[in-house]
Amino acid sequence: QVQLVESGGGLVQAGGSLRLSCAASGRILSINDMGWYRQAPGKQRELVATITSGGRTNYVDSLKGRFTISRDNAKNTVYLQMNSLKPEDTAVYYCNAKIKVASGGTYDWWGQGTQVTVSS
Fold this sequence. Notes:
Elements: E1 2-7, E2 10-13, E3 18-26, E4 28-39, E5 46-51, E6 57-59, E7 67-72, E8 77-82, E9 91-101, E10 106-110, E11 114-119
Parallel strand pairs: 2-11
Antiparallel strand pairs: 1-3, 3-8, 4-5, 4-9, 5-6, 7-8, 9-10, 9-11
């Protein structure tokens, strides 16, 4: 089994910053792409950013310049640095990773989500 454990969410005022972390554990052979998604109240889950095993990043256009995704391969961890937060950033943020497990298959894995609330 593989688990993705998120941390770093919380309540912050508009203009503030948070850094989310997501650590993968289990019988992992390798991790390919990792990413962050979010789901705001009343809306569907949307992609925020992705990062490949080689460090290539992709962002939603509306978030470029405020959010930064990074990873530490030695720790099987992906991060999301969020700056200049706005109330509309309020959502549950989910970690995602494509992981090759010991059985040989590659699967998408999801964290349970961490709440980010931005107050005005």
